[in-house]
Structure formats: C-alpha cells, structure tokens
Amino acid sequence: MSRILVLVRHGQSEWNLKNLFTGWKDPDLTEKGVEEAKSAGRKLKAEGFVFDTAFTSVLSRAQRTLDLMLQELGQTDLPVTRDVALNERDYGDLSGLNKDDAREKWGEEQVHVWRRSYDTPPPGGESLKDTGARVWPYYIHDILPKVMAGGTVIVAAHGNSLRSLVMALDGLTPDQIVAEEIATGVPIVYRLNEDTTVREKRVLEG
C-alpha cells in the first residue's frame, strides 16, 4: 500500500517574473518555469514514481507544469482531474498589479497584511483561510480517498492552494503557515499512515 501524495507548485510564470499579483489570472510559464517543471519530472522519475492519478487546477500554468512532468515521467496517459478548488488564491483587486505599485497605492504595511496574514483578504479577493476553505473539502472528498486506497497521487497546483494542504498535512498553525514558502517546481512527497496522518515527508530539492 503506497499511500503517496506528491505536491508540486507550478514552474515560474510570466507574472512571477514581472512581480505581478497573479491569482486567478492565467499567464503562461516562462522558459525557466518550463525547465523547472521538466526538472521536477526528472526528479520524480529518478525516484521511480509511477502515478495512478493526477489533480490540477483550471489554470494553464499548473496544467502545463503537470503535462511537462508527465512527459518526463513517460506517463502522459495518466487520468487527470482539473478543478477550480485547486486554483491559486484570488487576489481580487490586486490581480494583475505590480507588487511595488500596490505598495505605493495602499502602503507597505497594508499590502504586507494582505499578502502575509492568514485571514485578511485583499479587496474583492480571498485570504489564505478562504483558500483553505475550498481546498480542504476537495482534498478530503476527492484526493485523499485515492491516496488511502493505496494510490500514488500527484497534485500540480499553486503556492497558496498548496500551502493550505501543507498546513493541514503538517498540522501547522496560522502563524506558522504564513511563514511557509513553497518553491516553484520542487516536489514535496508525503507518505500517509492508515489513519491519514503523515508517516514521512520529503522535499526533492537539488
């Protein structure tokens, strides 16, 4: 019984590079992002992973990252479920804005609160807590049963949707999760116990 869950944040996007708030906007990967995705696939192949199913968001940067990883793995026929529940946090009125311009408009402290607090959303957008409120039920009802059936499951998603999952899996507090950074294109491998708790966690860096 494998009970393995692999989480991967999409490779660098064009808006990551331009220092823009992305959220539910849909920019593509940069050349670096493409290489990060391929590298993640190669790391997983070197570890011998054979996946049973995959999950991703409805945003192209996550979908393309998954496609590139599966190409490297030689597993392009894998069943893939795409769902809005795994989308990045919605930044609302900040979406598409340069982060420095946002600081000029609203002030350094306010933008920092929107970006790094747990439960204060930007205007028209979601907090990390709001993001978790859609990610956690989807994980419990759709992803976790596949893992607990003995599967090996990969999820390609976004910084904040994955932070929500990491918060639950690692048992982190709101204060701890806001300080947690998830690198682009770096697989996080969980092996779960029979009671759904984490037996082992590894981050495939380098």
Q: What's the level 1 CATH class? A: Alpha Beta
- Give the termini separation: 28 Å
| CA radius of gyration | 17 Å
By DSSP, the count of extended strands is: 6
Briefly summarize what is shown:
The chain is of the alpha/beta class and 206 residues long.
List keywords for this structure.
206 residues, alpha/beta, Rossmann fold, six-stranded mixed β-sheet, 8 helices, globular
Outline the fold blueprint:
Blueprint: E1 4-9, H1 14-17, H2 31-46, E2 53-56, H3 60-73, E3 80-82, H4 99-106, H5 108-116, H6 128-148, E4 152-157, H7 159-170, H8 174-178, E5 188-192, E6 198-203
Parallel strand pairs: 1-4, 2-3, 2-4
Antiparallel strand pairs: 1-5, 5-6
Helix pairs in contact: 2-3, 4-5, 6-7
How would you portray this structure in words?
Strand 2, helix 3 and strand 3 form a beta-alpha-beta unit. This protein is globular. The mean pLDDT is 96. 43% of the residues lie in helices and 15% in strands. The relative contact order is 0.22. By secondary structure, the chain is of the alpha/beta class. Helix 2 (31-46) packs across helix 3, helix 4 (99-106) packs across helix 5 and helix 6 (128-148) packs across helix 7 (159-170). The protein is built from 8 helices and 6 strands; from the N terminus they run βααβαβαααβααββ.
